[in-house]
Inverse folding.
């Protein structure tokens, strides 16, 4: 042991505190190790007193600690050591094997004409755990709040799009009604001619069928404006879409397991339409559709690929314009607009002749994995 | 009123201090931190103008303060706007998140940063002047600049304040803070006297 023994009577008080206290001389020899430290570390004072602090606890031998001692020995300002930068000043295991989280202060201690440095260590494990839990809860609450805000924004966009969709469909219904009235007029003028009457009656029936489909579609659009976007588990949606589209060969990759997508209502209708398109326009009796998902640094990529004829280069943009294709079901125009409500984009990136490939880019906050 | 030589000496002592502090902060955080004190203002509390207050903004400040007593007495603080304090702590500790509010662990982190800088600055002053000062442990408090300057004691209009604008240059970011040395009545005279004694 260097120097003369420290006067223990002056330090006996520190044996009764539930904080760790160790005292070192200017040569960094430990000359006091209190009971609390014995209890925390399992190291008896006889085993450390007289030993060099940095030899016994090399983790303390960093410039950010060692370099701050000399000022203390000169009775300068006390040093504060936060748990963020020095979480385990003197390793003190807890019953579960984890280490106590600590913070500390180094204070000058003047005893009998000699200045020592006293390292006071506090156990802040519970405090740090509470803060960690609080941060987790705060992050969850913030996420939920963000989702709610996003959903409200999306709902406003959906309502704007709804009126756009409704305008288009109402115009179409009005056209069908005008046509039906015309055929009705012709029917009444040709009641004596059975063949012509039947022909006009069939045309009126066709117009009414179209109107019925338009109304069905309008009712679907109403869902868009009535409910906020939510998380949709993709797997059951694809299973149902496969049945509805009567598709025999659907292949999905493991990236889809537990994948949820944040999208407005009608995601199920979009899935059915994409599969029906592959079935109807594939020009291949053995149509196979493959759906896969992968993550890129900025977004997720959802691919719907088929082995049909594909889309001609000149049609790649046109297929997403209003009025392209049939008007009695959700078109690719509607699909693109509905997905855009939650900032999901869709484009056709396949090679004509080898099959269609619809590529959707999902922003990071519109997909997640859940345990299924 | 303080003479130019003494003002220069105080500026130099503070710059030596923050230079030392930057070295410790670099080691502790693993970041490349540069500290600069571009401007120093020495004024009486009663002359604290809007211009001085505006240096830090009128909003609430997050502050680490340590009192000292000896031949000259007062309080040394490191003050930031609440947003700058949160940004600094997050940068130094590698945390993320947009909130300006600080929890206790972040407050402790800021306390250590403040303690490193205050100790380095005050260590530099007491070493150069060979003055023995007794210091308290760092405390965290929030308030406007007048409340911060007042500390726990009622500040008098004749008390001197040394305002040292401090720039933390961390990677590509610059965060502004303020070292605030509030000297009790008579303490600036004794500080200047010590400087003169060292210079002569």
């Amino acid at each position: 042991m260097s120097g003369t023994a420290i006067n223990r009577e002056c330090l006996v008080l520190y044996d009764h505190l539930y904080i760790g206290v160790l005292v070192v001389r200017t040569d960094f020899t430990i000359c006091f190790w209190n009971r609390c430290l014995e209890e925390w570390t399992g190291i008896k004072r006889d085993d450390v007193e007289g030993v060099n602090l940095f030899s016994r606890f090399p983790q303390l031998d960093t410039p950010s600690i060692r370099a701050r001692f000399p000022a203390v020995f000169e009775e300068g300002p006390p040093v504060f050591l936060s748990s963020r930068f020095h979480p385990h000043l003197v390793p003190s295991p807890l019953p579960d094997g984890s280490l106590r989280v600590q913070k500390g202060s180094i204070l000058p201690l003047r005893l009998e004409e000699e200045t020592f440095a006293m390292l006071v260590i506090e156990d802040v494990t519970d405090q740090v755990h509470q803060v960690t839990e609080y941060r987790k809860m705060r992050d969850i609450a913030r996420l939920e709040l963000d989702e709610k805000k996003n959903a409200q924004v999306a709902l406003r966009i959906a309502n704007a799009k709804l009126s756009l969709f409704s305008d288009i469909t109402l115009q179409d219904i009005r056209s069908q009604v005008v046509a039906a009235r015309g055929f009705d007029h012709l029917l009444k003028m040709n009641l004596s001619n059975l063949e012509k009457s039947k022909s006009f009656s069939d045309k009126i029936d066709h117009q009414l069928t179209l109107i019925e489909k338009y109304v069905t579609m309008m009712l679907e659009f109403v869902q868009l404006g009535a409910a906020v976007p939510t998380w949709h588990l993709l797997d059951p949606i694809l299973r149902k879409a496969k049945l509805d589209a009567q598709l025999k060969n659907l292949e999905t990759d493991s990236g889809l397991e537990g994948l949820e997508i944040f999208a407005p209502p009608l995601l199920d209708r979009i899935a059915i339409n994409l599969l029906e398109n592959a079935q109807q326009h594939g020009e291949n009796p053995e149509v196979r559709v493959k759906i896969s998902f992968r993550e890129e640094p900025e977004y997720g990529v959802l691919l719907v690929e088929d082995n049909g004829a594909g889309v001609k280069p000149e049609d790649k943009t046109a297929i997403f314009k209003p009025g392209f294709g049939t008007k009695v079901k959700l078109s690719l125009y509607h699909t693109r607009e509905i997905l855009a409500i939650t900032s999901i984009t869709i484009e056709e990136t396949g090679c004509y002749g080898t099959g269609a490939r619809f590529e959707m880019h999902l922003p990071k906050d519109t997909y997640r994995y859940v345990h299924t | 009123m303080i003479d130019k030589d003494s003002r220069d000496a105080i500026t130099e002592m503070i710059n030596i201090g923050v230079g030392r502090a930057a070295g410790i902060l670099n080691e502790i955080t693993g970041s490349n931190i540069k500290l600069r004190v571009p401007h120093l203002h020495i004024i009486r509390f009663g002359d604290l103008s809007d211009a001085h207050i505006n240096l830090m903004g009128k909003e609430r400040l997050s502050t680490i303060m340590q009192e000292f007593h000896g031949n000259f007495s007062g309080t040394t603080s490191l003050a930031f706007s609440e947003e700058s304090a949160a940004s600094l702590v997050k940068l130094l500790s590698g945390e993320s998140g947009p909130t300006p509010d600080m929890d206790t662990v972040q407050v402790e982190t800021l306390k250590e940063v403040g303690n490193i800088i205050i100790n380095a600055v005050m260590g530099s002053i007491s070493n150069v002047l060979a003055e023995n000062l007794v210091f308290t442990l760092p405390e965290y408090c929030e308030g406007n600049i007048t409340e911060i300057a007042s500390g726990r004691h009622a500040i008098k209009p004749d008390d001197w304040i040394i305002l040292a604008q401090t720039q933390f240059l961390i990677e590509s970011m610059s965060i502004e803070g303020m070292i605030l040395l509030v000297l009790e009545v008579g303490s600036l005279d004794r500080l200047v006297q010590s400087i003169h004694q060292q210079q002569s």
User: Anything to note?
Assistant: Chain A touches chain B through 30 residues (CB under 8 Å). Chain A has ten helices and 13 strands. The CA atoms of residues 26 and 354 of chain A lie 80 Å apart. The first strand of chain A starts at residue 20 and ends at 24.
